[in-house]
Amino acid sequence: MLALSDPGKRQKGVTAFLLEKGMKGFSQQPLHGKLGMRSSDTAELVMEDVYVEDWRRIGEVGGGFVDTLEDPRQGAHHHRPSAVGWAAAPWRRASPTPPDRKAFGKPIADFQALRWMMADMATELDAARLLVWRAAFFCDEGKPYTREAAVAKLFASEAACRAAAQGVQIHGGYGFTKEFLVERIYRDVKLCTIGEGTSEIQRLVIARELLKA
Ligand SMILES: Cc1cc2nc3c(=O)[nH]c(=O)nc-3n(C[C@H](O)[C@H](O)[C@H](O)COP(=O)(O)OP(=O)(O)OC[C@H]3O[C@@H](n4cnc5c(N)ncnc54)[C@H](O)[C@@H]3O)c2cc1C
After folding, report:
1. Which domains does the chain carry?
2. pLDDT (average), residues 7-28
3. Active site residue 158
4. Ligand 1: which of 194, 202, 204 to mutate, most ligand atoms within 8 Å of CB?
5. Listing from the earlier edge strand, what are the strands of the sheet with 57-58?
6. Which of 28, 111, 115, 191 has the fewest CB atoms within 10 Å, i.e. is most exposed?
7. Residue 114: phi, psi to the nearest 5?
8. Could you say which of 141, 196, 200, 209 is catalytic?
9. Atom 45 in ligand 1: residue holding the nearest Cα
């Protein structure tokens, strides 16, 4: 949990603490009605006058915000590879999908417009995968990888959303129904651009790293 330990210092007045279920004043409210990711439980964490002892502090007083923002490991091991998986999913489901679908007497995979979409999806998927591998390689080598991780998270998340949208498009009307998995992927994948640092926050991190150089 991040708490404002010194409100006057804005983000430099944020400190991280470890809270445990069952602590007085700390409760969880399950959230229902999500757009996607419905098979994963999400709860709102409610804190009312929770007393936290100093031994529960993580890191320095006032260092919580910067530590959280600068620790690229958070999303690197979750949302970046997930986004690559999600980008791959509509591609696998859509290429050439639905295989027996014909329009104007031809398999839809023969239409150049759809082939271009598939080519774009495959190209972005390769790029996303390589960016994730680069960030992971830097991490394994013990090199700084804040920028690489943010670039990978941003690109893989946005590419996965584009791939999911194209997957729905390639399916036509079927894509709008629950009959094919692309409908679910389209809803689930949006979380990649929001969770563990939104796309806007990744851009802030990338720009900050660029301006440091
Ligand atoms: C299904 C689900 C599961 C989640 N699971 C977890 C979890 O396990 N643990 C956890 O800690 N959190 C979790 N979250 C919360 C998630 O990390 C936040 O929703 C996310 O980080 C965005 O924060 P916010 O909702 O407060 O948006 P806000 O900060 O209110 O942002 C709203 C909009 O403003 C933009 N914005 C905000 N600040 C800036 C800025 N400085 N510059 C430019 N644009 C900005 C954002 O990019 C966004 O577009 C979960 C959320 C969802 C939906």
Report:
1. 2-69 (2.40.110.10), 72-212 (1.20.140.10)
2. 92
3. no
4. 194
5. 2-4, 14-17, 57-58
6. 28
7. -75, -35
8. 196
9. 200
